[in-house]
Amino acid sequence: MESSLWASLFLIISILVQLNAYGRRPEPEASGRSPQDLEMEEKSLKTETRFLLYSGEKGDSCQLQLHHLNTLDQCSFNSSLPLVIIVHGWSVDGMLEKWIWEMAAALKSQKSTQVNVIVADWITLAHRHYAIAVRNTRQVGQEIASFLEWLEEAVQFSRSNVHLIGYSLGAHVSGFAGSYINGTNKIGRITGLDAAGPLFEGTSPSERLSPDDADFVDAIHTFTQEHMGLSVGIKQPVAHYDFYPNGGTFQPGCHFLLMYKHIAQHGFHGITETVKCAHERAVHLFIDSIVHHHLQSTAYWCTDMNTFNKGLCLDCKKGRCNTLGYYIRKQRQQKSKKLFLVTQAHPPFKVYHYQFKIQFITQTEKPIKPTFTMTLIGTKQDTHNLPITLVKEITGNKTYSFLITLDLDIGKMTMINFTWKKTAMWANMWDTFHTIIPWAIRPHHSKLMIKQIRVKAGETQEKMTFCSQDMDDEQLYQNEEKTFVRCEKGLKTRKQKMR
Ligand SMILES: *[C@@H]1O[C@H](CO)[C@@H](O)[C@H](O)[C@H]1NC(C)=O
Ligand SMILES: *[C@@H]1O[C@H](CO)[C@@H](O)[C@H](O)[C@H]1NC(C)=O
Ligand SMILES: *[C@@H]1O[C@H](CO)[C@@H](O)[C@H](O)[C@H]1NC(C)=O
Ligand SMILES: *[C@@H]1O[C@H](CO)[C@@H](O)[C@H](O)[C@H]1NC(C)=O
Asked: How confident is the model at residue 362 (pLDDT cuts 50, 70, 90)?
């Protein structure tokens, strides 16, 4: 994970340098104006935030102005539709990022529901030192709240129909909008996409995005790897449902090696692309959930990724699982629920999760660490030779549980072909054994048997048990494929044999 380390170090250092610079430099800035003057200037300009109604054409938008009713008509704002407001984050280059229009287009292209899409452009306040941009998030939240209150006064409109989607600092902006809005009713939904960590981690709920800010709050954490006590994305849960794809620390496909590809593609810009990769992954997971709406990713309640990797969390009872992204099941929770899932490195990100529980029987005292491959045969398609790496060695009779993820839908699993791979180490061990006891013949009772393979499919919640097809010989031989079928079937073939 060298590359992820550098990526987060780069961002953290730039934030730290800025925090320092901000803290130590109260004297007038280059322009000759003191920060106090700047602050006054910022306050006197009423709404710094520009509300851009997306028209459906790429990058084409129409500006709505607070207290100017005519702009609603001019922009053909349809107040009977639900409203989605996209809120961007801290800006390094003072430009609106490309993903904003990708997300706007995705939201607009939905067949099932029509929505108004507004981009809350606060770039003038976001393109500042990090610490100043952080302070500005409250002002922007206030402005969004005022805008929504005005809409409710001006036209038939309800805040319960509003969905704020905020990325990085924009997630906290959305939280402030939700907490500043006057009246007893809350905004319908807030989604935090890798909400910013520095200066927010560990603060009280009123100082960051929190579940109280809307009727329903969901968050996706994608870049929470910690360096020097800081992480780019916030680690702690901030929502009703908090999603941690691939554990939330770093994301597949975001390695620095890819930087060269990015530089080739985007020129020098490629560096920031790479640095932002894992941070911005939350955004792309969300867009993907709209674009590939037939491939919804399921995430499961779990304590941490280690436990998740053992396959122990694929349960959907009592709201323990949910759908990542736009089409989440909006179920309020008393406490934040941390949900985990594995994703691919590219869209469509969805994978299929399986828990495998293999019951090994071995007579050897010595622990062994065999390597296996599995071919899963399904009603739709097969996966060939999946390598299985057991984290722990096999000793005695034990059941091993682990997670397997597939990027394709094999349908109903009907058969498992299992192979114990011959490894050099094992061959050596055998040779040594043979040297010590030269008369030993290859034992008939092999050292390894599989009693049962139990499988649970997360996505369908189906539980299956597989037994050796050949009940007369349950032993595994190296480099020999062993076929396991659904146990009921296995019993049948066995009975037929006995007749
Ligand atoms: C506004 O949206 C509603 C609901 O989809 C639709 O019935 C109506 O025709 C729209 N109005 C305009 C002016 O487009
Ligand atoms: C809420 O009401 C207070 C008092 O009337 C007002 O000062 C404030 O601006 C209002 N908040 C928003 C977000 O409009
Ligand atoms: C494992 O189970 C087998 C068969 O059920 C039994 O013969 C063997 O003694 C057991 N080994 C250990 C270490 O419990
Ligand atoms: C799995 O094993 C069965 C029985 O040995 C064999 O007929 C089948 O071709 C194998 N399937 C795959 C995909 O390897």
From this structure: confident
Minimum CA distance residue for ligand 3 atom 3 = 361
Whether residue 114 has its Cβ less than 6 Å from ligand 1? yes
Same domain, 372 and 324: no
**Number of domains the chain is built from:** 2
Q: Are 64 and 53 in contact (CB under 8 A)?
A: yes
Q: Is the CB of 493 under 6 A from ligand 4?
A: no
Q: What share of the chain is helix, strand, coil (3-state, %, to 5)?
A: 35, 25, 40
Least reliable range by pLDDT among 36-50, 263-277, 308-322, 394-408: 36-50
| Catalytic (active site) residue 473 | no
What is the domain extent for residue 368? Answer: 352-498
Q: Record the tokens describing residue 179, joined without a space.
A: 């907490």
Atom of ligand 1 nearest to the CA of 76: 13
Please state the atom number of ligand 1 nearest to the C-alpha of residue 81: 2
Query: Does residue 74 lie in a domain region?
Result: yes
The alpha carbon of 80 and the centre of ligand 1 are apart by a number of angstroms equal to: 7
119 located within any domain: yes
The answer to whether residues 357 and 481 belong to one domain is yes
The predicted-structure confidence for 425-462, as pLDDT tens digits, reads as follows 555 555 555 555 555 555 444 478 888 999 999 999 99
Same domain, 239 and 376: no
Residue whose Cα lies nearest atom 6 of ligand 2: it is 182
155 lines ligand 1 (CB under 6 A): no
- Give every strand in the sheet of 382-388, ordered side by side: 382-388, 371-378, 413-421, 481-486, 463-468, 449-457, 352-361, 398-406
* Residue 305 belongs to domain with CATH number: 3.40.50.1820
Predicted TM-score (pTM) of this structure: 0.87
User: Domain check: are 336 and 373 in the same one?
Assistant: no
- Over the stretch 17-68, which tens digit does the pLDDT of each residue have? 565 555 443 333 344 445 555 554 444 446 899 999 998 876 688 999 999 9
Q: Ligand 4 mean position to 476 CA, how many Å? A: 16
156: DSSP letter: S
